[in-house]
Amino acid sequence: MEYLVTKRSHPTADEIYSSLVKEMPTLSRTTVYNTLNILIGANIVRVVTIEEHEARYDADITDHGHFKCERCGTIYDFRIDTDAIRTEELKNFKINEKDVYYRGICAKCLGNIE
Ligand SMILES: [Zn+2]
Ligand SMILES: [Zn+2]
Predict the structure, then answer these.
(1) Which of 2, 11, 38, 80 is the most buried (most CB within 10 A)?
(2) What protein residues have CB closer than 5 angstroms to ion ligand 1?
(3) What would the pLDDT profile of 71-114 be if each residue is shown by its tens digit?
């Protein structure tokens, strides 16, 4: 949890395992997965599936969108107002999750950094 809160890089379970096993040699991948599932169940971590085959984990559960750079692979957070997104067709539905995913090339890779 501390790793997720301080890293904020939307790591995969493997990245979490590889970083933490250096400090905790007895750590297993199963422990990482089990711990993540507990944190997800407790609604303090959410899964980001911007790419179908790789789940990433995020300790920020407030409404925000994710942008993935197709060049450097970095995932950026951006603030969104989900209440401003019109979803009349779903007015009788119960929404459990709102995800906004964008893909493209980040400003850094485009050389657009001021
Ligand atoms: Zn980039
Ligand atoms: Zn995020």
Answers:
(1) 11
(2) 69, 71-72, 106, 109
(3) 999 999 999 887 788 889 999 999 888 888 999 999 999 998 76
Pick the CATH number of 1-61 from 1.10.580.10, 3.40.50.1220, 2.60.40.1180, 1.10.10.10: 1.10.10.10
- Per the listing, tokens 């993935």 go with 68
* Annotation: CATH topology of 62-114: Dna Ligase; domain 1 (3.30.1490)
Task: Quick: pLDDT tens for 33-58.
Answer: 999 999 999 999 999 988 878 899 99
How much distance in Å is there from the Cα of 28 to the middle of ligand 2?
25
Distance CA 9, CA 56 (A): 9
Predicted TM-score (pTM) of the model is 0.79
